[in-house]
């Protein structure tokens, strides 16, 4: 897809150079045949991941590109690890799959690296929302662009080859993809076995790689083929340089995947006029296929329904799809947009160059400065204004006005239509003081003798008339604090900020990765067992972050709001006692202080400020891993709407002022599957799970670091 997107870029605007990472045949990479001969192509061998990062770094040093683009997870992560070393290059990455399809380790790496990208391309709106929710990517960085169809290549390939099927009147079904669990070819074989009973003369062709890492899955599918007696009817033809002729001349294309990013081959099938039968493995499938017009869709993994859909689709004949793929021009515009900030940086450098000369008293420089700021940039920033180093302007700071008495610290960024000045007109009133590392959004008004603290962020359209705490986020009219990181004290906060700086951040990330890997080894033997009773559509309700631990390890979508937070025991029992009301009807409001002194003490010591919520004025929630009230509210309501009431797993833990009475109250709750982890032997309570490891503590331990203990208990309880 990277080749499809970039090979048609305007040669007058872009000099496109390809580095194809992977194995080669006779010195050529498989993708090279899709690249026009006039473009420069290099092959890069794979191997040791660290060595590959070094190779990529050397390539970037050699080429010094304006924009670098990648659309494969393993390459995206490696590129973004180098982001801070190439500050003049814009990094654009494309997501190739949904987050929930990745393993927990992969999602952690994404969370650490994707925030460094300048632009992230999501293939669907659902994929974009997932990035915003689960990885906390800035909304302005993520754009939704569905995959385009490479019409030129498809038409050329069709002309180059003939119909590969015998002209004997049989129905031909086609599926395409590498042999992997994701592609669901095992389900396809079971569905085709039923199709054969309805259409005895039909045949199934599977086009896709079946060697190397795909060999094991291929052997399993082969056994199924033999088991159903389909050896003469199912043809696994391997990788084909021209799969399009197989698709065009088939009677039906079948998508049997358990999950997809965006099913490109299915979209290409519709373009070629071949009807499809598909599992609704992702929401976008139903928006691509119009039932009865260009194919049929059925529930995921229901191979009986898929068989019927295949037969029905094969009777549609040649179709004209209503689906319109993305315009390749949208991607071209995106890459042009990616280079715009480079111009902005040049404007900033020239502004700072002129400002420093004009501010130091040079009359001729002051003339040039006024011409540049007032007539070219269109802003009014007097040269007498005190401005520190690293001042940045975006969008020329157009229509922005700053009073001469304003004091601006180091590394402050300013956007368009912003006013910073004194309240009155007499000149006696003092202007604002903007401290270091402040980010000011567009259309902001900062008025009066006030101080904007170090590291603060002023949201778009804010009217600021009061002091703003350091490292806080404010927005609104009048501006109110959305996030005030007052936790942990200055020393702990300083350590937190230092930990975010490169290369310390890389060292700590590596250290955490090794720790997580060590803990994963303790959990790994139980993860496959958990999958036997915790399906992908199970909703887990927990009193703390434990639900998130399970969902990450099992690669589940977040379909519960009880993630990244905790309840005190009184609140959790009340919450569970009227669960449906609190998740579907209750209003979430936010409070400044908890009714529990322990909660206020914990927040004061935490590395960042976090919101405290209240459901219907009764149930208090500590949103421990959230940074703003808006984030907490949006994720709570969105995830609550995904609850699967038919598949609930309810978990309680002896923590947060929990007593025996709370455990007894939990045991009486009418949930079919529930478990309460405690340090007490309460044999008369069916739901109580005694954990001997915590017997001397008076409560159970960390659900993340000690997850293997909890997993073992869950398996013993429900298997």
Helix-strand layout with pairing:
Layout: H1 2-6, E1 17-21, E2 40-44, H2 49-63, E3 67-70, H3 73-81, E4 90-94, H4 104-113, E5 119-122, H5 125-134, E6 142-144, H6 151-160, E7 172-176, H7 185-198, E8 203-207, H8 215-227, E9 234-238, H9 244-248, E10 252-255, H10 264-271, E11 276-279, H11 285-288, E12 295-298, H12 303-314, H13 328-338, H14 340-359, H15 363-377, E13 386-387, E14 392-393, E15 401-402, E16 407-408, E17 413-414, E18 419-421, E19 433-434, E20 439-440, E21 445-447, E22 451-452, E23 457-458, E24 463-464, E25 473-475, E26 480-483, H16 489-499, H17 504-530, E27 539-542, H18 546-554, H19 569-577, H20 579-584, E28 588-591, H21 597-605, E29 612-615, E30 619-622, H22 629-640, E31 648-653, H23 660-667, E32 674-678, E33 688-690, H24 707-718
Parallel strand pairs: 1-2, 3-4, 4-5, 5-6, 7-8, 7-10, 8-9, 10-11, 11-12, 13-16, 14-17, 15-18, 16-19, 18-21, 19-22, 20-23, 21-24, 23-25, 27-31, 31-32, 32-33
Antiparallel strand pairs: 25-26, 28-29, 29-30
Helix pairs in contact: 7-8, 7-12, 14-15, 17-24
């Amino acid at each position: 897809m990277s080749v499809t997107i970039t090979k048609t870029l305007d040669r007058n605007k872009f000099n496109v150079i390809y580095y194809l990472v992977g194995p080669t045949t006779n010195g050529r990479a498989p993708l090279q045949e899709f690249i026009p001969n006039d473009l420069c192509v290099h092959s890069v061998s794979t191997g040791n991941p660290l060595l590959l990062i070094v190779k990529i770094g050397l390539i970037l040093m050699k080429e010094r590109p304006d924009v670098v683009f990648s659309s494969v997870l393993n390459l995206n992560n490696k590129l973004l690890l180098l982001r801070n070393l190439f500050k003049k290059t814009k990094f654009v990455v494309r997501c190739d799959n949904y987050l929930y399809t990745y393993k927990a380790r992969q999602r952690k790496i994404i969370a650490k690296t994707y925030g460094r990208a300048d632009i992230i391309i999501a293939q669907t709106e659902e994929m974009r929302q997932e990035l915003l929710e689960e990885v906390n990517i800035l909304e302005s960085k993520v754009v939704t662009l569905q995959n385009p169809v490479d019409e030129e290549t498809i038409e050329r390939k069709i002309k180059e080859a003939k119909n590969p099927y015998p002209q004997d009147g049989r129905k031909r079904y086609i599926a395409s993809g590498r042999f992997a669990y994701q592609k669901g070819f095992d389900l396809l074989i079971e569905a085709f076995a039923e199709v054969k009973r309805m259409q005895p003369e039909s045949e199934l062709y599977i086009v896709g790689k079946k060697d190397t890492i795909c060999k094991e899955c291929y052997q399993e599918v082969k056994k199924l083929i033999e088991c159903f007696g389909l050896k003469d009817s199912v043809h696994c033809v391997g990788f084909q340089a021209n799969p399009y002729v197989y698709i065009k001349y088939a009677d039906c294309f079948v998508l049997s995947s358990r999950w997809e990013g965006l099913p490109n081959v299915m979209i290409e099938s519709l373009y070629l006029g071949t009807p499809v039968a598909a599992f609704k493995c992702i929401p976008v499938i139903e928006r691509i296929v119009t039932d009865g017009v260009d194919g049929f869709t059925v529930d995921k993994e229901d191979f009986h329904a898929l068989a019927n859909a295949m037969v029905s689709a094969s009777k549609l004949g040649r179709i004209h799809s209503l689906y319109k793929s993305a315009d390749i021009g949208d991607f071209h515009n995106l890459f042009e947009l990616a280079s715009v900030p480079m111009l902005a940086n040049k404007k900033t450098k020239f502004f700072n160059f002129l400002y420093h000369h004009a501010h130091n008293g040079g009359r001729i420089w002051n003339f040039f400065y006024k011409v540049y700021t007032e007539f070219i940039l269109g802003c009014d920033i007097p040269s007498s204004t005190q401005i520190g180093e690293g001042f940045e302007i975006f969008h020329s700071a157009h229509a922005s006005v700053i009073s001469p008495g304003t004091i601006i610290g180091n590394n402050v960024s300013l956007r368009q239509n912003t006013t910073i000045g004194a309240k009155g007109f007499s000149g006696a009133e003092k202007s604002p003081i903007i401290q270091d590392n402040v980010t000011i959004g567009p259309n902001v008004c900062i008025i009066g003798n006030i101080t904007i603290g170090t590291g603060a962020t002023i949201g778009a359209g804010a009217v600021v008339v009061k002091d703003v705490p350091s490292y806080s986020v404010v927005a609104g009219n009048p501006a109110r604090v959305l996030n005030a990181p007052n936790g942990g004290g200055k020393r702990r906060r300083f350590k937190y900020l230092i930990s975010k700086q490169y290369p310390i951040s890389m060292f700590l990330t590596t250290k955490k990765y090794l720790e997580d890997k060590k803990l994963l080894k303790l959990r790994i033997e139980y993860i496959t067992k958990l999958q036997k009773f915790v399906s992908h559509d199970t909703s887990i309700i927990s009193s703390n972050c434990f639900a998130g631990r399970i969902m990450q390890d099992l690669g589940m979508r977040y379909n519960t709001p009880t993630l990244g937070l905790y309840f005190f025991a009184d609140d959790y029992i009340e919450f569970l006692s009227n669960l449906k009301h609190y998740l579907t009807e209750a209003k979430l409001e936010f409070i400044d202080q908890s009714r529990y002194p322990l909660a206020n003490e914990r927040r004061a010591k935490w590395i960042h400020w976090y919101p405290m919520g209240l459901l219907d004025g009764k149930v208090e929630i500590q949103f421990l891993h959230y940074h703003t009230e808006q984030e907490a509210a949006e994720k709570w309501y969105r995830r609550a709407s995904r609850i699967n009431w038919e598949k609930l797993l309810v978990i309680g833990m002896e923590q947060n002022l929990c007593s025996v009475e709370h455990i007894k109250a939990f045991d009486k709750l009418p949930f079919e599957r529930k478990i309460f982890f405690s340090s007490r032997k309460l044999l008369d309570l069916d739901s109580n799970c005694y954990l001997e490891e915590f017997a001397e503590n008076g409560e159970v331990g960390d659900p993340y670091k000690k997850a293997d203990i909890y997993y073992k208990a869950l398996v013993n309880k429900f298997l």
